[in-house]
Structure formats: C-alpha cells, structure tokens
Amino acid sequence: MSPLSQRRLERIVDAFSRVKLLVVGDVMLDEYLWGDVERVSQEAPVPVVHVRRESIALGGAGNVVRNVVGLGGRCACAATVGEDSAGRLIGDLLKDHGVEASGIVRVPGRPTTRKTRVEARSQQIVRFDRETTGPLPRAAARRLLASVEATLPSMDGVILEDYGKGVLERSIARGVISRCRAVAVPVYVDPKEELRAFRGATLIKPNLREAEALTGIVARSPDGLARAIQRLRRATGGADVVVTRGAAGMTVAEGDAELRDVPTAAPEVFDIQGCGDTSIAALALARCCGASLLEAAVIANAAAGVVARKVGTAIATPAEVCAALGSVVAAVRAGPRSAS
User: Domain ranges in the chain?
Assistant: First the structure.
C-alpha cells in the first residue's frame, strides 16, 4: 500500500471544483433561534431564552448540498418539499448556494420537514420537529425519478441521503440506483434505517450506531465490526463500506482488501451535528477525483474535524480541510486509537 502523501491529498481537495454531484434525499429547513439564558422560568423549571437573532439553513440532504458546495464542488438537488413557506425558503436557499433546483418536487398536502432549534450558551436547549415520514404519493415519486434521470448525464456522482422521512423508500432508492448503474454514475449512500433498498450502490457510509441497527450486530469490538461490515457488503451487493466512528475516525472496506482503521486527529469537539453530512460529501468528492478509499477517508476525517469545532450545522472549506490534513495524516501514521 502506497504511503499517504499530504501533497497529493491537497491536490485532490483542489480538484473538488471539477466535480458535479447530484444529492437525492430528505431535504429539510433548519431554523435557529440564538439567545442567552439568564434565569429560570417562574412558570416551570425551564430556562428562559432571550432570543438575540434568528437564522435558517438547508438541513438533512440540504446540508449535504451545503457541504458539497462549501468544499468547492458543484451540485444539483432532487428532493420533495411541501407547497408551503418552508418549501419556498428551501428553493431560495438552494438558489443562493448556486444549486440547480429543477429537481425539487412540490407535493400538495405534504408539509416540508422543518426543524427549529433553540441555541444558548453554545448548546442546544430544545428542538421542535414538523414533518411527515410516510412514503411519497406515486405521482410525486414518478416526478422525482424523472428529474433524477434527466440530470444524470451531467453528473460525476450521486449521493443518496436518507433521513428516514419517506423520500428514499425502497422503490425510489432502487429506481435511482438502477438509473445510475445504466449510465455508469457512482452512487454514495448515507443510510438511516433501510439497507436492502441500496443494493447496487458504490459505497455505503453508516455511522457505528447505524451499522449496528442495519445489521443487527453489536460492532463495538474489532470482530463485531468486521462481521457488521461483511453483512453490509453482502446486503448491498459488494459496496465499499465506510463506518464513521466519531473521535476514533473511520473503518473502511474497499473491495476484497482487509479492513483498515483510519484514525483522525483529536480536536476539542464542540458540536458533532452535521458531521456525517460533511463526511459523505467529502468521501464522494474525493472518490470522484480518483482518491483511494483510504485517501478519501483521511480527507473526510479532516473535513468532519473542521465542522466539529463549529456550532450548528456547519461546513468546511477547501482551505480549512487542507489546513487540517497535516494532523490527520499524522494520526493515521501513528496508528488507531480506542473509540472509548
């Protein structure tokens, strides 16, 4: 196995600007109320948050879109929203990011997934969710698949981002993958609750807890993790597997090669929210640039580490990733650490 070259990794990150990805999945609107806590309510033993400002951002699959663009790539999005104000805001935000939004399907009677978070003293106080998780109406599913098929000829890769909100139910996921395979476009999957739907994918990236839930195998030991990854590969028809493991980095399985633990640097983590979205975006971009799975995992570890230092669903820039690569490469050369 060739040694890691930091200079080559930096060249790969620089090449992200030549890649165009299609993100398909559960797009959401993230709303934030930012404030201070100075007292407890007299009405109930809860903090009173004095709201100082409000903000909105793309969430769910939309946060993957943000990360692809933030990392320097080009992006299109295929998803569904409701005929409501939140759906219109998502359309506006996609345009603000320079993202093609022709694949956004409006579904009458189905609300846009909307999450409202209250943040104070650099931590989340409470979150309110407004959503529907049932499958899409057949007409909406057909329109979504048609939009994917029309977009594929100009794409270098497709990310399927499943948050379990109904967009990537089995028939849609399989329809997207079959269309991608027909035109030799790689598919990178960030799964939630389903596995068989993603058979034929190029790569699947669960976190450790998701890997356990998807396979029914406790994966906290090397042997358990190896068995879980083997089951993931079988269920997806031999996809490459990346299991993200928080501060322990990632474990990767490429083709028939042995499993490889890919440690990461140990930053002071402020907020892990959205790190999985960053990881799948960086993995897909790097692989589309010709990176090996090891190289892609190192780059994804660096990008996720940048985001972990920020509050809220954040993004990493190419410059920030390149600045973080040195410590991550050093961690890989030093060898794996315990996940605990």
Answer: 6-334
Yes or no: say if 80 and 97 are a contact pair by the CB < 8 Å rule. Answer: no
Specify the pLDDT at position 210: 95
Instruction: Name the nearest CA neighbour of 167 among 140, 130, 207.
Output: 140
CB-count burial class (<10 Å; 0-12, 13-18, 19+) for 281:
buried
Distances (CA, A) of 301 to 32, 35, 137, 243, 244: 26, 31, 38, 12, 9
The SS3 assignment for 96 reads helix
For tokens 């650099």, the residue is: 122
Neighbours of 97 (CB within 10 A): 16
pLDDT digits (tens, 9 = 90+) for 201-220: 999 999 999 999 999 999 99
- For tokens 């299609």, name the residue: 22
DSSP character at residue 252: E
Q: Mark whether 277 is an active-site residue.
A: yes
Q: How far apart are CA 62 and CA 74, in angstroms?
A: 14
pTM over 0.90? The answer is yes
**One of 162, 190, 271, 277 is an active-site residue; which one?**
277
Helix (H) or strand (E) holding 100: strand 100-107
Parallel/antiparallel/unpaired status of strands 203-204 and 240-244: parallel
Characterize the bridge pairing of strands 203-204 and 187-190: parallel
Structure confidence by residue, pLDDT tens digits, 158-190 = 999 999 999 999 999 999 999 999 999 999 999
Rounded-to-integer distance, Cα 168 and Cα 153, Å: 21
Q: Give me the CATH code for the 6-334 domain, please.
A: 3.40.1190.20
Distance CA 35, CA 116 (A): 14
- Is 270 a residue whose pLDDT tops 70? no
Give me the pLDDT at residue 340, please.
Answer: 40
> Inter-axis angle of helices 275-288 and 61-70, to 10 degrees?
50
DSSP per-residue codes, 287-306: HHTT--HHHHHHHHHHHHHH
